[in-house]
Design brief:
Elements: E1 15-17, H1 20-27, H2 56-61, H3 67-74, E2 77-82, E3 85-90, H4 92-95, H5 100-114, E4 119-124, H6 133-154, H7 156-165, E5 168-170
Parallel strand pairs: 1-5, 3-4
Antiparallel strand pairs: 2-3
Length: 179
């Protein structure tokens, strides 16, 4: 990506598309005195769901699982965690996809992470009651996208383009740039 600003031209500018290339150009304008810093602090973890204070959303992502086993874990909730027992709730549709190999893979990953042998129980629930790790991730991504959209809207250069040319931000084009 070149660091010099590009001329957008005056004719026909009706929309600013905030894709990866011009999002960084808009957000990273260090010379804009009206620029508001974007808070990139991590979103707080959800409250612990049990007495051992494990944040299931983080824990589930750190198990090193792949494929169907990962999807099962990311779409489950932690019902119970005891010294040698873990119980996960998931939808009946997901439970139908679980076989012995998948269950063993999940159990082994939890055992390795906790450093103990345990029994794993998977239960079907119509209503999970709390946010799954997948739902948590989607919510955080949506909140981050909305914060980025607001930061772009408040950017002095964007405001000037809007005032001068009637430019609009296409919200669906806003994407996270991985550094």
């Amino acid at each position: 990506m070149d660091s010099e600003p590009r001329s957008l031209g005056i004719e026909g500018i009706k929309t600013i598309v905030a894709d990866e290339s011009n999002l960084s150009a808009v957000v990273d304008q260090g010379s804009d005195p009206d620029r508001q810093p974007v808070d990139e602090a991590r979103y707080p973890e959800p409250e612990p769901q049990n007495d051992r204070s494990i944040h299931w959303s983080s824990f589930a992502c750190e198990l090193g699982l792949q494929g169907l086993a990962l999807e099962i874990v990311l779409n489950s909730t932690l019902e119970s965690l005891q010294q040698d027992y873990v119980c996960l709730n998931l939808s009946s549709e997901l439970l139908e996809l679980v076989n012995t190999n998948i269950e063993d893979e999940i159990r082994q990953a939890i055992e390795i992470r906790l450093g103990v042998s345990l029994k794993l129980e998977l239960l079907a629930q119509d209503e999970l009651g709390v946010e799954t790790p997948q739902q948590f991730k989607q919510r955080v991504l949506q909140e981050q996208k909305q914060a980025a959209i607001e930061a772009i809207r408040q950017n002095g250069i964007v405001k000037k383009l809007n005032d001068a040319f009637g430019a609009e931000l296409v919200e669906s084009s806003v994407r996270k740039i991985n550094p």
